[in-house]
User: Which sequence fits this backbone?
């Protein structure tokens, strides 16, 4: 191999590593801003289920105008797509070594990758069943009555939401810990330990809020009864 070919190969490898570095940084950033912020807000909005159907639909499914709706979709879906692609690429390079290195950090990393698979499936199903299908096939946003009935009388739906929100809470909380380390916001042992505590508290808060919403919907479902046959 000539010197020029060697130099060209080194430049190509450097460019590839640089591209991967910045794509990784972009994927990590989008996981927190805006996806993380929107997820926390979405979980908060869903707590309106305790106030009844009208309050929940106003907080979660209604939009003031088409422009606001389009902006929301763009802010959420575009970063979500980029983050999903970035995460999928990382999954293909994932090689667990927890047996050889049974450390706490290694265990968290394994859970993060496993949670990513579950969250990806959950969000895909959620976008279709709770967002696209009602609007495209039924001509309206998802109704509180429909989702609360599903929670109460369709066990697979209840299980999927319980496990799906568990995965989302962990993936986001641990992702913020990874973000703070990767972006140099927490580098020392003490600061990483503090971030670990913050991540655990965030996980518990997000999970409690998510499961509280599921509980509210489950209880409300008893007032409406099972969906009519053929619904």
Assistant:
């Amino acid at each position: 191999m000539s010197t020029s070919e060697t130099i060209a190969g080194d430049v190509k490898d450097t460019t590839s590593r640089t591209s991967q570095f910045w794509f990784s940084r972009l994927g990590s950033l989008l996981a927190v801003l805006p996806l993380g912020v929107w997820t926390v807000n979405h979980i908060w909005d869903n707590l309106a289920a305790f106030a009844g159907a009208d309050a929940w639909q106003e907080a979660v499914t209604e939009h003031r105008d088409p422009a606001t709706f389009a902006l929301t979709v763009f802010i959420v879906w575009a970063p979500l797509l980029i983050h999903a692609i970035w995460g999928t690429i990382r999954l293909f390079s994932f090689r667990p070594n927890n047996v050889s290195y049974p450390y706490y950090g290694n265990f968290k990393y394994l859970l993060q990758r496993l949670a990513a698979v579950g969250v990806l499936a959950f969000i895909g199903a959620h976008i279709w069943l709770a967002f696209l299908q009602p609007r495209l096939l039924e001509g309206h946003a998802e109704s509180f009555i429909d989702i609360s009935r599903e929670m109460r009388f369709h066990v697979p739906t209840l299980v999927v939401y319980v496990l799906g929100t568990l995965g989302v809470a962990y993936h986001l909380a641990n992702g913020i810990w990874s973000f703070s380390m990767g972006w140099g916001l927490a580098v020392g042992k003490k600061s990483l330990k503090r971030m670990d505590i913050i991540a655990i508290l965030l996980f518990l808060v997000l999970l409690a809020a998510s499961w509280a919403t599921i509980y509210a919907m489950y209880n409300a479902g008893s007032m409406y009864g099972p969906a009519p046959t053929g619904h």
